[in-house]
């Protein structure tokens, strides 16, 4: 894989083409990729996103990306290095010190899902991009322009607002796989706690992203994993012959025995009482 380098603190690239002029590549800089017009596929790491005009993607030095263009596409790339923000101490308001542009750019969740902007935000985003393009064509040193700097900073304000609306956590503290599985096993007897909405909130993962995150990391759907693990525990109890169906139903939080029997038969094709009798004969 090619790895491109940039030594200027800020560069703006504006191109329109039907065949992307680069191969899949990495880079040593950050890149805000704005789709001005066109349609196609944007590949980021192992994920593919359909793109259209108004979409914005965030690429960090840890990422690789590529375009597959279905129609002529105009792309605006705002490329900056670590120096671009770190050299401007005067702008560091408390909120941005906590969630810096660099930390937003490296947020792993933003490589898994596409940012969703409402109509008003899309309009402001387009106008901000246009402002940056105008200054890029008129000023000699764009990397030192205060106006361009604050225009770029406003892009991150739009991004942060979209993240809040999508319930995406800034900190990007995705749980270790072992932590997540341990939590599920610990609360397998409490159906309310392991509902997607609750467990996603506990681990600071966007609810809309949680299912895709789980499937990518465990090669099976979240609900399928829960059911499979729950069935394995239930069958141990059925095999022992020491538990009634009501006791098992109560332990695992089913509404009643009928609900429990329906769940088991729906997953295994036989009733729990029949399974119990088979294992004990």
Automatic annotation (TrEMBL):
InterPro entries: AraC-bd (IPR003313), Homeodomain-like_sf (IPR009057), HTH-like (IPR037923), HTH_AraC (IPR018060), HTH_AraC-typ_CS (IPR018062), RmlC-like_jellyroll (IPR014710). It comes from Chryseobacterium indoltheticum. This is Transcriptional activator RhaS. Residues 178-278 form the HTH araC/xylS-type domain. SMART domains: HTH_ARAC (SM00342). It holds the Pfam family AraC_binding. GO terms for molecular function: DNA-binding transcription factor activity; sequence-specific DNA binding. Keywords: DNA-binding, Transcription, Transcription regulation. It comes from the Bacteria. The keyword Plastid does not apply.
């Amino acid at each position: 894989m090619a790895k491109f380098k940039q030594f200027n603190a800020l560069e703006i690239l504006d191109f329109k083409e039907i065949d992307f002029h680069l191969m899949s590549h990495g880079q040593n800089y950050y890149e805000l990729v704005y789709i001005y017009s066109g349609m196609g596929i944007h590949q980021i790491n192992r994920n593919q996103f359909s793109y259209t005009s108004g979409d914005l993607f965030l690429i960090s030095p840890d990422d690789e990306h590529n375009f597959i263009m279905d129609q002529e596409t105009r792309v605006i790339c705002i490329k900056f290095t670590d120096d671009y923000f770190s050299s401007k101490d005067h702008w560091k308001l408390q909120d941005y010190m906590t969630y810096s542009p660099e930390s937003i750019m490296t947020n792993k969740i933003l490589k898994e899902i596409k940012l969703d902007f409402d109509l008003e935000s899309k309009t402001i985003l387009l106008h901000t991009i246009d402002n940056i393009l105008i200054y890029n064509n008129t000023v000699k040193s764009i990397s030192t322009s205060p106006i361009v700097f604050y225009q770029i900073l406003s892009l991150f304000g739009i991004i942060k607002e979209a993240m809040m609306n999508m319930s995406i956590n800034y900190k990007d503290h995705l749980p270790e796989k072992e932590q997540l599985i341990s939590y599920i096993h610990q609360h397998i007897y409490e159906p309310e706690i392991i509902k997607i909405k609750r467990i996603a909130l506990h681990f600071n993962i966007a609810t809309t992203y949680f299912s895709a995150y789980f499937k990518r990391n465990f090669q099976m759907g979240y609900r399928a994993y829960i059911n499979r693990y729950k069935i394995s525990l239930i069958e141990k109890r059925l095999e022992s012959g020491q538990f009634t169906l009501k006791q098992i139903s109560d332990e695992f939080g089913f509404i009643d025995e009928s609900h429990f029997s329906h769940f088991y038969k729906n997953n295994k094709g036989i009733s729990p009482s029949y399974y119990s009798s088979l294992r004990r004969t």
